[in-house]
């Protein structure tokens, strides 16, 4: 990664550092924390959709796995929160690896339907296993405590998610500059040509799917502990579509587009609250106009306008 590539990351770090001091009250800090959480999830999803060209319409299911691992294991089995979080990531990674090869033999809308079905199955499981998950009503999540330190204030969560966001952006940029990232771009362009030059197409698809799923599981756990409560809505179909929409609006195959899409679509429902009864209509109209006039997403379009790369 060249020096010029570090400048946006440095600007992001500076912005995250000063932002809490500029916010007028705790409501806006809470909103900023949710933006950062969504940005990390969407960044992981964009690695799969934007860079590798593989669709996932059930990604919220992996988010739910992480959230419920952090709720169920400490509550029912007395696990430490950090161990439960890591176990949720491991379980999610194993599940993603098991289903990835059969799923990614499919293409186009068949692949989309398969990932949708996976997400629906995971959502049904957490709804039906009421004795463990609380069913449709959900369940409380114990506070996150590590080495005697409990994250109990919004400031604590802000510094944690800010550090995770910076780390995620740095990892994603370096990953895309690596041979692994170039292989992902190649199979996105043409799987046939990629195979012709020796790229293990199936292996790379599985690897990026597992990585993206574990991103989601981690942030599902973070969200569960931050909110203090988890319901099956975290893993439902509409949440998956919301995440994909953030990827598309921000800009596919754009690291900073992921952040921009997450920030805008997390804030937009709050901004539209004044349109009583018409929020969904206005929201849909804004998305439609973005897709018509900014088909490549906000970040790539703005980057092209000002003569810079979309990363």
Automatic annotation (TrEMBL):
Organism name: Rivihabitans pingtungensis
Transmembrane feature ranges: 6-23, 35-57, 77-98, 110-126, 157-176, 206-227, 247-268, 280-298
Q: Where in the cell is it found?
A: Cell membrane
Principal subcellular localisation of the protein: membrane
Name of the protein in its database record:
Amino acid/amide ABC transporter membrane protein 2 (HAAT family)
Q: How does it sit in the membrane?
A: Multi-pass membrane protein
What InterPro entries would the database entry show? ABC_transp_permease, LivM-like
Q: Which GO terms describe its cellular component?
A: plasma membrane
Sorted alphabetically, the keyword list is: Cell membrane, Membrane, Transmembrane, Transmembrane helix
- GO molecular-function terms, A-Z: branched-chain amino acid transmembrane transporter activity
PANTHER family, A to Z: BRANCHED AMINO ACID TRANSPORT SYSTEM PERMEASE, HIGH-AFFINITY BRANCHED-CHAIN AMINO ACID TRANSPORT SYSTEM PERMEASE
This protein's record includes keyword Membrane: yes
User: Is Membrane a UniProt keyword of this protein?
Assistant: yes
